[in-house]
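Two folds, back to back.
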Amino acid sequence: MTQNIMMPYEVRQRLIQERLAEPLKEKCRIRQIEDILGQDEAVFRILNDLRKDRPKNIVLLGPEGTWKKDILRACFKKVQYEGSSFFKNGEFIEYYPEKNYSDDLIYTTLFGRLEEIDCASMKLQRLKIGLVTRANKGILYINNIENVKEYVIFKLVDVLNEKKVKFGKIRISEATPGYLKRFLTEGLPADFCLAVNVIDIKSIPEDMLTICDIVSFKKQDKRVLKELIKKTADKGLFYIEDDVCDEIASVAKSGEDAVRILQHVALNALKNGRSKIIKEDLKA
């Protein structure tokens, strides 16, 4: 029989705040290799690609909700910890171009821009650094690659091949600082590993596919989802009945979806003054 249903409102609210101050999706977030469930082959391929003297670019292919980005980041951190000479001081840079972004905005964000600004009677040049330079000796992760036009992708491939980004029209004057002259003539460093997250491989032009390793992620089966649900509930200090766990695993479309459902039923349990999740919570 369910207990503590008549728990005072203030006590229930405090319990909710204590247990879900950090959402369950954050509690189960992949931060290290040991947190990854059911993607052994993908992890092996990524680690192998990143451990090379010249790390390979990667296409992360697979269904939504399988935490491809978080798995990639965990692999990156592991390789860094192992003492990778390439990634020693590199960063994990993320970019999410949206459909409403202009082509110019995406281009400038990725590659930077040389701008002229008026200063008294002079025109001074200012260099805006793009993500390809920020990702130098690191990883540039791009989601929503389907929102990037092909000519921008071709430019990205050129940068990957040359390992630097150059600016087309440049104007060097006596007022141009020495360091800027060198960057304008030689280009900015952009030696990085590209990782692109896609659901449909057709969204990647052939020119990019030829320089990438395709790493496929599996749809999480019921066994993996059930293990994920139990571990997440445990991290949130919840006890979940087996039949509830089975039902969530049966209807969830992915790991992310399973955690979203678990968050909902956990909140309902707490509203009723329980840290035990029961079947009735699924009906709320």
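---
second:
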Amino acid sequence: MVLAGKLITELGIKTPAEKFFKLFSTELHEVQHACERVHHTKLHHGEDWHDTDSVKHWTYVIDGEVHTCNESVEEIDEQNKKITYKLFGGDIENYKVFKLILEVTDKDNHAVVKWTIEYEKINEDVDTPNGWMDYLSKSTRDIDGHLLKGEKVAL
């Protein structure tokens, strides 16, 4: 059985790519207000939410169950609107490696969000994190809707 893998999903959104990316690159603490699947998040270690030395603690729902983990930003590529997060601890303890990679691009008349999960399980008995793909898809839709509502109010 394969212990390492990669899962990818791409979703079209109505929010401009720059605005969607900005939420994750400079306003990450606001995600819990834009997505019902994120119950709570707090800065666990460090002074800045977006510093690579900071650690955030997340409480979220996947497949109807509450989960927790810690997260740190591994890399932010502003030019290509790409962020790599490293997840660990909590319910991620069954993985040696668990990375979420967010890429947001403009394509024709809309934007596209691409989520990639890179993982390595600690053993064959650990499930592939398929529930995460549904979580990320639904969360992206929630956040897109939230950002669009905010955009309409501002007009």
